[in-house]
Amino acid sequence: MLLATCDAELLGRVLRDGKIVFEIREQFYKGPKMTAEEVIELMEQSTIVNMVGHKIVRKAIERGLVHPDAVLEISGVPHAQIVKM
To answer: For the domain that residue 35 is a member of, what is the CATH number?
Structure first.
């Protein structure tokens, strides 16, 4: 199961950092608004997770789902992925 999640205020934004252009597209990230706890539950069930934003990445780190060293920053916004094999 693939989960794409972002902090709500980032939806539709384009992050630029040097040659990197990262689009937080509604077609990929938009879904029902959920609490951080609801999203964490889905992360635990997912095989691939793509997350963008200070709030959701911080929650994933707090729950031990993402190591802080695995977080990339694009224009100061954290981005992380989880892939379970």
So the answer is: 3.30.1860.10
Question: Would you list the DSSP string of 17-67?
Answer: ETTEEEE--HHHH------HHHHHHHHHH-SEEEEESHHHHHHHHHTTSS-
**pLDDT tens, 41-60?**
999 999 999 999 999 999 99
pLDDT tens digits for range 56-68: 999 999 999 999 9
Helix (H, G, I), strand (E, B), or coil: what is residue 63? Answer: coil
| Residue 79, domain extent | 2-83
Single pTM value for the model: 0.93
State the Cα–Cα distance between residues 39 and 28, nearest whole angstrom. 15
